[in-house]
Queue: 2 jobs
Job 1
Amino acid sequence: MDLPKHAYFKGKIVPYSEAKVGVATHALNYGTAVFGGLRGYWNDEKKKLFVFRPIDHYRRFLNSCRIMSMEFDQTPESLTNLTLELLRQDAYQENIYIRPLAYKADEGIGVRLHNLKEELTIFAIPFGLYIKNDTSAHVTISSWRRIDDNSIPARGKISGAYASSALIKTDAARGGFDEGLVLTQDGHLAEGSAMNIFMLRDGVLVTPPITDNILEGITRRSVMELAQNELGLTVVQRQIDRSEIYICDEFFLTGTAVQITAVTKVDHRPIGKGVMGPVTDSLRKLFDKILCGNDPKYAHWNVVV
Ligand code: PMP
């Protein structure tokens, strides 16, 4: 794997090799960190790097910080500016993934959130496809359950909560699947290990509500808007039963990492006709054009480095 070139660390941009923490760091021991995940897309014709919806990502990031009692003198705009500064130094000419991370930085023993100092770091790495089979993914329904708002709030991107995502992903991968979907404690579909889900049933696009222990995905929000405004689809947020996925017409995953990934099989059952459906295909094409900065109508979603 590529290492980052630089990191924003302790208030300045340094070579990545200098961005180090001690092994007793609170966040490393207890998962007391929150993170974000953004993408930059290199447009080779325009020779420009486009970052997708950084203000929205940083708004969610700062909300995650609030959930974990972390205070920073930052705004979504100031974090976006820091990111642009970092990316100018990195000077990548390829697609990248950007990772902001806020963490409890004290070194010592004692589980808590209070009376600890916070640090902020940001780094970026080259990044390609997250799920190789992005037009024909085969997913399984995980035997793990989704973390609950009353245990580790799923709407915060809290590092410790991703131990659960790791269990879901690895069990799915070891079982030969591309991804795992998780059910809520009461048995409704919540999301994938690190992505939101959508199903098309009888011409209506359905996704679980934000009160079903999902991360409030930026891609999810973008896809809902595109489906309504560009494809004229009705989009509904409601609980989804497990058996609905077996009989729906199309199913796809959304997220910064997976973008829009078509799911064509779940637990060895074909979804719809067993190939990527037309709605998923149209949304993918629309979204690709936007991400690379080639759609003037959605230019406001991108920030150019
Ligand atoms: N759910 C989870 C658990 C995630 O980690 C992610 C990735 N950030 C998503 C959904 C998708 O969110 P977004 O579209 O903002 O990347």
Note: The longest helix spans residues 76-90.
Job 2
Amino acid sequence: MMPSSVKMPQPPTPAHICPMDRTCSYLQQAGSELNIDRGILTVLENPRKVVTVSIPVKLDTGEVQVLAGHRVQHCDVLGPYKGGTRYHPSVTLQEVSSLAMLMTWKCALLGIPYGGAKGGIALDPHQYSVGELERITRRYTSELIKDIGPAVDIPAPDMGTSAREMAWMMDTYSMNVGHAVPGIVTGKPLSVGGSKGRQQATGRGVMIVVREALAQQDKPLAGASVVIQGFGNVGGAAALLFHQAGAKVLAVSNVSGAIFAENGLDIPALRKHVVENHAPMNNFPGGEWITNEELLTLPCDVLIPAALEDQITEENAPRIQAKIVAEAANGPVTLVADQLLHSRGIMVLPDILANAGGVVVSYLEWVQGQSYVFWDEERVNQEMEGLMVRAYHRVYETSQQRGIPLRLAAYTLGVGRVAQALSDRGLYP
Ligand code: NAD
């Protein structure tokens, strides 16, 4: 458990701050913990490149719409930029910038040679046909063609995108340069150089760090009660893996609400119902329909927010009954809520550690693509497991040694590594 006398970040004013301010606030905390030079911190506060493009698309009705697409490249001191592509109505340049910075610290924390980036388009993918989504994705990719590349910036899936969009991005890039370039994106289908194990990687990484945290409290994963907000790429995979490991998944949710069963949900049956049969989650016979807000405050061992930012706030943090909160989504706990959870002795496994499994296997996919040697799933999972377990223990030990919360410990490790590299490389020119 956390040491009792810990240095906590100062509460921000006002209580709810924008994602970029939150990420910068954690950067500042890590900077003062490590006494990082002010000039280096100023460089790290600012993304290196911000690109916003217009995406004109002809809808199936013949109407023309113009969407705004962003790509923010935060820092490439350690290697090429890496980061997901998000399709969601709430996408803003601020949010994308904050997520790009998070990616920099995440890659550095895990010890993988990438810098942070993120992309996104403000749209609700459910409102567009597959053909429209393909045209949007291809135009977005071609607008970014000079800014991305396998040694420059490598996109991946994120909220609202999947292997399908990555295949379109890979094809568009390859058509533009005249030959197949599998290394341009990760999270691709296996048929075009994707990695085995990538689809479940983020959920698996969450399970690994939760397992390590429980083990330190002498609790096995089997029998632990788990609640998951979100049932997409991350939440859906996590639910299945926890279920397979013998944990009791009490509830999962999607945008319309949550399904709850006191003795644990039959996750394979629920996945069949929702993913294969495309049936609404609330029609699932093996559980009771509750709200997302009720889900967050259920009594459980582990709560896993795997949907959106800002889900655990100062309003509901006092009612959270989980013993561990594992941030599978990026930024699901606000700054003030983070302090409240900490003061209540709830362990928070921070996003840059807990959801890093995705970028770890993306890195392994890129390594396989560069070497033209492809591994079986067992090898991929083993390599990922090693990186995640070592990162968890580095964060935990740093937190103990410095008397700081796990999040600040994770930032200290990530920011410290990038700051050192920047200092060693020096400023150009
Ligand atoms: P996804 O689009 O596949 O799934 C999102 C899920 O959240 C869906 O079940 C959706 O119904 C649900 N949801 C949406 N709005 C909601 C709301 N208001 N309340 C409750 N549930 C809601 O997205 P994903 O790829 O699983 O990503 C989820 C989170 O994990 C994001 O924060 C993303 O940045 C983060 N993440 C994803 C990956 C990855 O590999 N996909 C890696 C690291 C971090």
Note: Residues 1-15 have pLDDT under 50 and may be disordered.
